[in-house]
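Table 4 source record.
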Amino acid sequence: MAIFLDKNSVVIVQGMTGSEGRKHTERMIASGTNIAGGVTPGKGGQVVEIAGAQLPVFNSVEEAKTQTGANVSVVFVPPKFAKAAVLEAIAAEIELCVVITEGIPVHDTAIFFAQAQRSGKTRIIGPNCPGIISPGQSNVGITPADITSSGVIGLVSKSGTLTYQMMYELRDLGFTTAIGIGGDPIVGTTHIDALAAFEKDPETKAIVMIGEIGGDAEERAALYIKDHLTKPVVAYVAGFTAPEGKTMGHAGAIVSGASGTAAGKKQALEAVGVKVGKTPSETANLLRSLIK
C-alpha cells in the first residue's frame, strides 16, 4: 500500500522538454515511474526520446489527460509560468499535481491553492519540494530512488535533503510513501494531510515527521496527533541554531519573536507523546525502538 501515489499512477510532466524536466523525467523512468508524456504549450505533436522511451508532447494538460489517461502531473516550469501550469492541471481535474518549482511568488501559490480547494478534485504537493515517492511503485519529483526500499514507515517532511537522509537512515525498514511537502509559507499538502492518510494506510506501521523553524504547522500537527493518531510518531525539528528574524533556506523558515522556534515545536510535540530526536540519526533510532 501507499498514499497518494502507487503503481497504478500515470504521470505527465509539465515542462518535460526543458533541461530540468528532461533530466528528471529520465530519472523517474529509471525508477519505474509510468511516464505517459509531457506538456509544453506550442510543442504539441512532437515525440521526445528519453531513457529509451518515445514520449509524446501535448499542448495542454487536458489533451494529455484525454490521450493518456494520466491522473498525476509533475511541474518543472520556471516560477513565472508555474501558476498557469498548476491552474491548467486543476482545470483538467488531475488528481495529484506535484509542484517542484522553487521561487514561486506566495501570491501565485495562494491563487492556485485556493482554486484547488474550490475544485476539490486536485491535491497539490509543494511547491518548492522534492516530490513524493512510494518505493518500488512510483517516484514523482527529484527524490533519489536508490537510497531506500519499500517497507512500513510513512515519512512527511518540510525539507528535501532531510527527507533523503531519513530515507537512507531507515533503509533497513523501508517506506510505504515519503512526501516532501516543501518549505514555503503556503503548501498544498500539510503535515496533517499526510498524517491522516498514513493513519488510514494499513501497511504504514509508524510515521516520521520532519519539521523546521517558522510558522505553526508542527504545533497544529501535534494537536492533530493527540486527537486522531493511533500509530507511533517520531519527529525531528531543524533549526535550533538559527538566528532570530533571519530566513533560513526556505521562505517559510523564519522565526518572529517567540513564534515558530524549534524549541517551541519540540515542546508541543513531546507534550502529546511524540519523541523528538536531536539529530536525524537519533530520530531514526527512536523510530526503530518503537517498531521493535
